[in-house]
Amino acid sequence: MTTRSADRVLSSTIIEYFNVRKNVDKIEKLYDTVIKDVERTLIDKVMKITNFNKSRSARILGISRNTLNTKLRKLKLKYKF
User: Fold this and answer.
1) How far apart are CA 11 and CA 62, in angstroms?
2) What pLDDT, on the 0 to 100 scale, is given for residue 17?
3) What is the mean pLDDT of residues 32-57?
4) What is the DSSP string of 14-65?
5) Share of the chain above pLDDT 90, in %
6) pTM for this model (two decimals)
7) Residue of 60, 1, 69, 71 whose CA lies nearest to 36
8) What are the residue ranges spanned by the domains of the chain?
9) Residues 6 or more apart from 67 whose CB is under 8 A from it?
């Protein structure tokens, strides 16, 4: 996926998010919510693609294995190894 196509997907998802909600003024902490959801989904998909290999997943994500472990705990992503 190119940066452009990722941008299109994210843009349409954000527009859909706002269209579903009637009162935009009641939306709070949107940035934190979106970042957490994107991070969770990204890490989960990479872990599955690498057959749950933490070293490979960390390398693909561009983070250290320790950082990946911290994020897995923080996001409560658990896998049976």
Assistant:
1) 24
2) 84
3) 93
4) HHHHHHH-S-GGG---HHHHHHHHHHHHHHHHHHHHTTT-HHHHHHHHTS-H
5) 48
6) 0.76
7) 71
8) 3-74
9) 58
Q: How far from chain centre, in Å, is Cα 69?
A: 15
Residue 21 neighbours by CB under 8 Å, 6+ apart: 27
| Cβ-contact 33, 26 below 8 angstroms | no
The DSSP H or E segment spanning 66 is helix 65-74
Query: What is the fold of 3-74?
Result: Arc Repressor Mutant, subunit A (1.10.10)
- Secondary structure class of 1 (helix, strand, coil): coil
CA distances from 59 to 46, 54, 69, 72 (A): 10, 8, 13, 15
